[in-house]
Design goal:
Helix content is about 35%, strand content about 10%. It is α+β, with helices and mostly antiparallel strands.
C-alpha cells in the first residue's frame, strides 16, 4: 500500500474482509476441542491456545504471541562490569564490581529519562545481569535462554 491514499487502503482492506467472510468457517469450541489451534482476539489483546503439544507448536504459539503490529523501541544493554572482569575473566557467575554498580545506576537513570510505558526487562540467570536489572527498580523476567554458552 506504499504511496496509496489511506481511504483507498481502508476500502481495499474492508473488501478483502468481505471476501474472506464467504469462505471462513469459525472454530467451534465444542466440536473442534480435539484440534490444536491458537485464536488471536483483537490483534493480540487476548489469546486462546488449545491442545498445544510439542516443541514446534509451543514455539509457534510463542512467536504469534510476541508479534507486535505497533511500533516500539527495543533497548539492549550489557550487564555492568563484574567482579570476575576485574581479574580479566569473561563469564562465570559473579556479582557486579563497584564500577558495574555505577553503570547499573547510570542505566537506570537513562531508562527513567525515557518514560517507557509498560517496560519489559529480560535478563539471564547470572548474578551480574540480575544485579544490573534490579538497579532499574522495575519488574524483570529471567530467561535461561539468555544465559551464556560455555563461558
Amino acid at each position: 500500500y506504499k504511496g496509496c491514499a489511506q481511504e483507498d487502503v481502508v476500502a481495499d482492506f474492508l473488501k478483502r474482509i468481505e471476501c474472506y467472510k464467504t469462505t471462513y468457517e469459525p472454530l467451534d469450541e465444542q466440536l473442534d476441542s480435539g484440534l490444536s489451534y491458537i485464536k488471536i482476539f483483537d490483534v493480540g489483546l487476548r489469546y486462546l491456545a488449545n491442545r498445544v503439544q510439542g516443541h514446534v507448536q509451543s514455539r509457534t504459539v510463542y512467536y504469534l504471541m510476541n508479534i507486535h503490529v505497533t511500533p516500539r523501541a527495543i533497548y539492549l544493554s550489557r550487564h555492568g562490569e563484574s567482579q570476575l572482569n576485574l581479574r580479566g575473566r569473561i563469564g562465570g557467575d559473579s556479582g557486579l564490581s563497584p564500577r558495574g554498580q555505577q553503570y547499573a545506576q547510570a542505566l537506570a537513570q537513562f531508562i527513567r529519562s525515557q518514560s517507557i510505558r509498560e517496560l519489559k526487562v529480560w535478563t539471564s540467570h547470572m548474578k551480574r545481569t540480575i544485579e544490573t536489572a534490579e538497579a532499574l527498580g522495575v519488574p524483570y523476567e529471567q530467561w535461561k535462554a539468555l544465559n551464556e554458552i560455555d563461558a
